[in-house]
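Possible regression after last week's pipeline update?

I re-ran a chain I had predicted before the update to compare outputs. Posting the input and the new output here so someone can diff against the archived version. Not blocking, just want to make sure nothing changed silently.
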Amino acid sequence: MLKVNLRPIVSKINLPTVMKTTILPGDSVERLFIATQVGEIFYIGNGEIKTFLDIRPRVLKLGESGGYDERGLLGLAFHPNFYHNGLFYLHYSVAGSQGPSALSTPFKPNPCDPKTLNLKWLNREAQSNHIDTVEEWVLQSNGQPQKRRTLLNIRRPFLNHNGLNTLNFSPETSKLVLTTGDGGSGYDPFNLSQDNLEIAGKIIEIDVDRNINGNNPPIVTRFNELPTSIQETLTVIAKGVRNITGISYQRYYNQYIKYVGNVGQDLVESLFSFVHYKPIPVTQLIHMNSESEMEGFINFGWRGWEGAFPTSTIKGCTENPDVEEKTIAYYDQSVTLSAIRLQPLTSYFHKDPRPDKFEGTALTGVQPYMGNEIPSLTGSVVFTDLVQKGSQAQVKGVLAYTKLRPDGKQSDYSVIQTDYDFGSQPANYVGLGTNLNQSKIYLAVYGSMKVTDLNMGTIFEIAP
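New output (post-update):
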C-alpha cells in the first residue's frame, strides 16, 4: 500500500472550499490561495497567511438550520492571463436570498406512485432556497480587489448540491468552466440534471472574454430565461451531474484528459474521465428535443444512473432488518440512458466487504498528480472521501488514487495510507487542490461537519 506524509501548511482556518495557486501581478512566486465557505480568501506569502479578499457580508448567513450547510463561497478561479489583467472569478450564495426551498418534506421516489416520478418545480420565485451568483473581479493596481460585473444569477431549489470548487479555467478553450449540482434534496426530485433547459446538473463553459452588455443579469433557473447576449457566451459540455467537486485537466501529449467526480446518493461514488467531447452552444441546446441531436455530448447518467448502477432506493428487509432491499427508482429513465451515459473510470462504494478497499461517504476532491516526488503517484489521479465508514476508532477521511488504463476499460483504485496523528478530533477530508503544474497536491481537513464550528480547518501538502 502506498504511504504518504501530510505536511501542515496552515491551520485554524474556516471551512476550505477551494485551494489553488497563482502568481500575483508583479510577483515572481507561485502562491497558494485558499477560499473558505463563509467568504474569505487567503494566500500564503513568505510563510504567513494573508487576507486577499473578505466577502463575508456578501455571502448568505450559513448554518442557520443546524450548522450543516452546502452553500457559501464555493468557487474561485484566476483568469489564465491574471498576472497581466488581474481578473478572477467567484461563485457564491448571495446574502439575503434565503427562501423556503422547493419542497417542504424530504423526497424519495416510489416506483409504485408515478406522481413521485414526475414532480415539477412550480412557482420558482417563491419556492426556492437561495440565489447563487458568478462574478468577475479585478485586482486593481493599488492591490485592492474590486467587483467588475455579474456573469450569472442562478436560483437554486434546495440548500444542498451546489457543487464545490465550482470554477476552473479550461487549458484547452481558455473558457471559465462552471460545474453545477442538480439543485439538491436527494434523487433529483424534478429531474433537472437531464433537462436541457435547466442550468442545474450541468458543466458549462463561459466565454468571459466576450463583452456582455449590462452588469445585472436576471435571476434565472433555465437557459432560455437568459438574454440572448448572455446565452451566446455559454456552452454546455455535460449533463447528468448530481453533485460535483469541480473539473480537473491532465495534459497527455497534445490533448487533455478531463476528470470529474460525481457524488453518489446511497450506493456509490463515481470518478469519470473523458478526452473528446461535443460542446453544445446554449443557443442551440435550448432548441434540441432528441438525444440523437446530441451525439458525442457527455452525459453522466444521473438521475437514472448512480455511477455504475441504476439509481436505487434502499430499505431494510421486513423479515431481516440487517439485510437491505434495493429497488430501482427510475427504471424507464435507467433504460433510456443505458446506452448514452458515460461509464465511470472507477467507483467506490458505501458498503464494501473487500479488505483492501474502504466504505465511503461522499467524494470531495479529484486532482491529477504530475509531480516526481512521489513516483508511485506520478500520472495518476488522486481523490478523497469525506469520512470513512466502518469500525475504525477515529472519524477520518480517505485518500486514494487510480490511473487510466490504456485499453479504456474501468480502472480499480488503491487506498493511500497516511500516518498523521489528528488526535481525538474528527478529520473530515473536505477537498483537494493543486499548484499550476500539478506537481503538488493539497488536502483540506476540517474538524467538524458544521460550518458554524469556526477555525477548525487545516491545509496539508501531500508529501513523500
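Follow-up from reviewer: compared with the archived run. The radius of gyration is 21 Å. Marking as no regression found.
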